[in-house]
Write a structure and sequence with these properties.
Blueprint lengths: L1 H32 L3 E8 L2 E4 L5 H4 L7 E7 L6 E7 L3 E4 L5 E3 L4 E8 L2 E6 L4 E5 L2 E4 L5 H4 L7 E7 L4 E7 L3 E4 L5 E3 L4 E8 L2 E6 L4 E5 L2 E4 L5 H4 L7 E7 L3 E7 L3 E4 L5 E3 L3 E9 L2 E8 L4 H21 L1
Antiparallel strand pairs: 1-2, 1-24, 3-4, 4-5, 5-6, 7-8, 8-9, 9-10, 11-12, 12-13, 13-14, 15-16, 16-17, 17-18, 19-20, 20-21, 21-22, 23-24
Helix pairs in contact: 1-5
């Protein structure tokens, strides 16, 4: 009778253990399938504020804010401001007045004016959303259609009190202006671009360097600003914003630290920076992603529990 009871206990113990392992496996699958959560931060002066839910239209982005861009234009810094954000498929302005959902994933976005923005898609196409109407403008500028790798990055910049627009695009190695007048091919892979004027733009490279293309001449400006040279992870993100009457905002970031060009404003985040947008000399925005614990870690934990259970049964 004692032997039968002991056998029953072992079977029951094994059953409970298997249930625990099954639960942990399902938990790990659920976690691995869940996308990383994102937060939009505004850095202004010495302060950092969470702006994720500031605009209700952005709350409607099911995938969270994955891309963000602000553009100031007009005679002064308060005349007009374009604020746009996107998740993996939907691009919207901050009021929700203009919005569009694409069938293909969004790679990056660029705000232009209040009712107009651009989105680069994963398939290499460039789309314009103007007053709520989306149109494929991949071949609008012949110089962009010459990019053999498709359009992977695009940036629009309004300057000269908003009357002049600079439009630049790039594939994996070549940066070019909309007219094709200025173009340069890098040996390293391009990771982001920032339009400045019709004759000047910047590109960050995979090796952490920052290059400036001015009137067709490319130069390494990684150490042009001491504060950027201090980024231990190299320059992974860069944005320049011309606004008002002659003001220029210049910001850069590595994987965790965001700083302006003077170094007077610098912020280090616990999580990974995935996007930045310069606003003024003392204000910028950044999208930060909290990377979830990999499923392998949870599976490793479940394996340890299994080994502990096995050891206990063996000892018994």
């Amino acid at each position: 009778m004692k032997t039968k009871f002991s056998t029953y206990q072992k079977k029951r113990s094994n059953l409970l253990l298997n249930k625990k392992l099954a639960f942990l496996s399902l938990l790990s699958i659920s976690i691995s399938a869940h996308s990383a959560s994102t937060t939009l931060f505004k850095v202004i002066g010495p302060n950092i504020t969470d702006e994720t839910s500031t605009w209700s239209a952005f709350d409607n982005l099911a995938g969270g804010i994955q891309h963000y861009d602000i553009e100031r234009y007009g005679a002064n810094s308060t005349t007009a401001t374009a604020v746009w954000a996107a998740d993996s498929n939907t691009l919207t302005n901050y009021t929700g007045t203009y919005s569009h959902t694409f069938s293909t994933g969004i790679k990056n976005i660029s705000a232009d004016i209040a009712n107009q923005a651009f989105a680069v898609l994963d398939n290499g196409e460039l789309w314009q959303v103007s007053s709520g109407t989306a149109s494929n403008v991949t071949n609008t500028w012949s110089s962009f259609s010459n990019l053999s790798g498709g359009i992977q990055y695009f940036d629009a910049e309004r300057y000269g009190e908003g009357s002049v627009g600079a439009f630049w695009a790039a594939d994996s190695h070549t940066l070019t202006e909309s007219t094709g007048t200025y173009s340069h091919t890098f040996s390293e892979t391009i990771t982001s671009i920032s339009a400045d004027t019709t004759g000047q733009a910047f590109a960050t490279l995979a090796n952490g360097e920052l290059w400036k293309l001015s009137s067709g001449v490319a130069s390494n400006v990684t150490n042009a600003w001491a504060s950027f040279g201090a980024l231990s992870g190299g320059i992974q993100h860069f944005d320049i914003e011309r606004y008002g009457e002659g003001y220029t905002a210049v910001w850069a970031a590595d994987s965790n630290t965001l700083t302006n060009y003077t170094g007077s404003r610098s912020y280090t985040f616990e999580d990974v920076i995935t996007d930045i947008s310069a606003d003024t000399t003392v204000q910028a925005f950044t999208v930060v992603s909290a990377v979830p614990v990999p499923a392998a870690v949870w599976l490793f934990g479940s394996g340890l529990i299994g080994l502990v259970g096995f050891a206990r049964r063996k000892k018994a």
